[in-house]
Hints:
This protein is mainly α. It has a single domain, classed as ABC transporter involved in vitamin B12 uptake, BtuC (Orthogonal Bundle), CATH 1.10.3470.10. Helices cover 76% and strands 2% of the residues. It has helices spanning 3-11, 14-37, 44-69, 77-93, 99-122, 128-147, 156-161, 170-188, 190-200, 202-207, 212-238, 249-259, 271-290, 295-320, and strands at residues 152-153, 164-165, 168-169, 240-241. A two-stranded antiparallel sheet has the order 1-4. The protein is globular and about 60 Å long. Its main location: membrane. It holds the Pfam family BPD_transp_2. It is found in: Cell membrane.
Amino acid sequence: MTDTMQARARSFDYKKFLSNNGALVGLVVLCLALFIATPNFLTGQNLLNIGIQVSTVAVLAFGMTFVIVAGGIDLSVGSVAALSATVSGWFFASAGLPGWMALVGGLVTGLVIGTVNGLASAYGKLPSFIATLAMLSVARGLTLVISDGRPISTSPEVSFLGGDLGPIPMPIIVLIGTALIASFVLNRTVIGRSMYAVGGNAEAARLSGLPVKRITVTVFALAGLFAAVAGLLLAGRLDSAQPQAAAGYELDAIAAVVIGGASLAGGVGRISGTFIGALVLVVIRNGLNLLNVTSFWQQVVIGLVIAVAVGFDVLRRKTSSR
């Protein structure tokens, strides 16, 4: 080994690497452990199942990443996903609209609900926690009212989202597409860079001339739109819009973002990290299913993982403030 290589090895900051890539390291260790524990984990069919299962959670979490990076929280995304799919199904099955219009109607529903969340938070001065907690109940209630508590048939265009395009499941294709779009928005656009500034210090961002309120509305609108995509994906997989669909998914979305390295204090977060965080959650559930662990214990394990991730976030912030 040359002197240069030795110097680089000595200068490598393992603590910094683990701090920035802890979720990825944890995912690799988790996959190795499950590979040893069960021979069915790394089969092609199971990996496809993981890809399909992670699609809904990851797309939902991409929208949540925008909100958390900007220093907010959105507890309504699971209900918004269900409402968007239900409205799309109602447009097709009851209103008689063409399938593509029903699909667009579902997307617009998510965008509108997200915008309402943003307006309530930015201009109504409600904390995002309270505004979206209220919307969680409102959106779920509207879902039950529109569907009368029963599943609604989806249009062929929505059902296509749950099918295959050649050998590749459509949910995986949609997942890749939304990941690229979300990453571009967050890293390559003015609004994306503004999210980091607002999340880091909203008052400093305002004094520097950034339209903080408009940015906040945009962030929540994007979260609502991504929630609608996730809801339509789930409806496509189920071949129907279920009124209780995506219940509790908002917690999975928040957990995926935090596990992926984002800070609940705002100003920190990456789409790639969120994707890895979503994979960690889905791989844990998939592995525990393969090991025949009951769903009750799965909830305990997921809760512990979330607690550890938040603990690391708190520790990271304390370390960086020194």
